[in-house]
Design a protein that fits this description.
The protein is α/β, with parallel strands linked by helices. Helices cover 28% and strands 20% of the residues. The chain has 7 helices and 9 strands. Strand 2 (33-38) and strand 3 form a beta hairpin. The chain is globular and about 45 Å long.
């Protein structure tokens, strides 16, 4: 486990002032492309939003599947659900991956099942079984992987998986050797997985046998997370490493849940702002090494 003291970084002031997206002239202006594809559950047609690199479809790119959290893919203020109303966090990360040369697809797994606005904090025990992050949402991740592999602009052997909160829990479940849907993409699946502030209880799934990721996996968490426990994730990682898994966790001192959200509420906290800056750099380096193969 690595702990980052985040409060003293000068970059925090810049992030608070501007949001963590780079200046407008440095990012692609194109809106993400809305697509549909099948979940590996064999029955659900999912919606995805594809962020493309500047070079577009002229070459085959590495790619990233992005899994949203409990609030869904869209802004909490959205009344229509499309590319324009995606949450700021998802837009920011999608553009970040596109700038780095990836094709990124954000998977809307809640909207097609009738819950486009997601769920409030504290609703975990009352959420529908068809949104289970251990048994169902990994199937959506593998459906997205199959979709990316069908595209001529994607190198299907170089795809990473990223998730936030409930989607980060789904990411952990999907990268495990026993993941539902994993057989649908053999012999090779995701090259690496990145989970931001997951809940690591995972319905007791790893109590009988430890988490065993099939690819390098990194968890990013905050010590001031008000929704889920970083200590539980530390325990999950410790057990996984003891079982031979290639997994690590980086913990940011005093960072909250959703610390990387580019809203003034989150980024006005200097610990969140500094954690965000480091998380972006860490994510780019992690996927450059394990997905791009740099």
């Amino acid at each position: 486990m690595r702990v980052l003291k985040a409060g003293a970084l000068l970059m925090a002031a810049c992030i608070v002032a501007t949001g963590w997206e780079p200046a407008a002239e440095a990012r692609p202006d194109r809106a993400p492309e809305r697509v549909t594809f099948q979940s590996a559950d064999g029955k659900t047609t999912l919606v995805g939003y594809v962020f493309l690199p500047e070079s577009g479809k002229a070459q085959r790119h590495p790619a990233v599947v992005m899994m949203h959290g409990r609030q869904g893919a869209y802004s909490e203020r959205a009344r229509t659900f499309d590319a324009e109303t995606l949450s700021l966090r998802h837009k920011a990360w999608g553009r970040e991956w596109a700038r780095a040369g990836y094709v990124a697809v954000l998977v809307d797994g809640f909207g097609p099942r009738g819950y486009p606005q997601g769920f409030p904090r504290g609703s975990y025990e009352s959420r529908p079984a068809e949104l289970n992050e251990v048994s169902i949402r990994p199937l959506d991740a593998y459906g997205a992987l199959a979709y990316l592999r069908s595209r001529g602009d994607v190198d299907g052997d170089r795809v990473g998986l990223q998730g936030w909160s409930n989607g980060a829990s789904a990411t952990i479940s999907a990268i495990d050797e026993r993941a539902p849907g994993r057989d649908s993409v053999r012999p090779a699946g995701f090259r690496a997985a990145l989970a931001l502030y997951p809940a690591c209880g995972l319905k007791g799934h790893f109590e009988a046998a430890p988490f065993r990721p099939v690819a390098p996996t990194l968890l990013l968490h905050g010590t001031a997370d008000e929704e889920v426990s970083h200590k539980r994730c530390e325990a999950l990682v410790k057990a996984a490493r003891a079982a031979g898994g290639t997994v690590d966790i980086k913990v940011y001192e005093s960072a909250t849940h959703s610390f990387d959200s580019p809203t003034r509420k989150r980024q006005s906290d200097p610990d969140n702002a500094a954690a965000t800056d480091d998380a972006i750099k860490t994510a780019l380096q992690f996927f450059a090494r394990h997905v791009k193969g740099d």
